[in-house]
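seq as requested:
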Amino acid sequence: MAKRALKILGGGVAIAVLALGIGWFNRNAILESTLEGAIQDATGVSTDIEGLNFQPFAGDLTIQTITLKNPQGFSTPHLIKVENLDLDFQLSSLWQDQVDIDSLSVKGLDLKVEQQIPDNNLVKVVDTLQAEDTEETNNNEKIVNIDRLAIRNIKASIKVSAIGDLGLEEDLDIGDIELTDVTSKNAEGKLSVAIANAVTTALLAKIPQDSLPINLDGDSPIKDLPIDDLPIDIEELIP
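struct tokens:
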């Protein structure tokens, strides 16, 4: 998913630069329409972009909000809402095989996951993105390289809709993620690990420590496990 998103962003900026000859004053509308169409084609869901400001010669792109709507049949207001995106890029690299981005920062990300029986809105979009990736050839594939990636103020809402009025909803304050040397080839792995760690930390923060049979201090939870009480010798299992 992240790999596809970086390609769309890098490709959209390059297309908008090429379109500058058509009309400088229309550059924001051109890029906004290009990105909305590309994201919708890739994800299968309607996308709204607001407050886009593209300054190619300064190497700067800012977007106030990017909203990915839900697949059909889901009730949450949206799937993903990105706020205050700021991208600093090198103009000369847009025509090269590798697009160099100095920094990409997002100051707000709201994820609303809805689990129905048996569908999940996030899984549906990810499946669509992966299907698109398998159809692409690797020939002439652009590589997007980001020196610094920062996603701040990440919030997630998990809604489980069961039969009738049964179900549950949980809000998580995930916090911030900061990464370096992110590319369209390694983005999936780096972001997946960072998000998984952040979500796990947020979930553990929701659980009162006194309700757990062991105490996890968050620094090295393995050391807090009651290894001495296990019926096997853990040391013999470690080479």
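The chain has one domain: 2-210.
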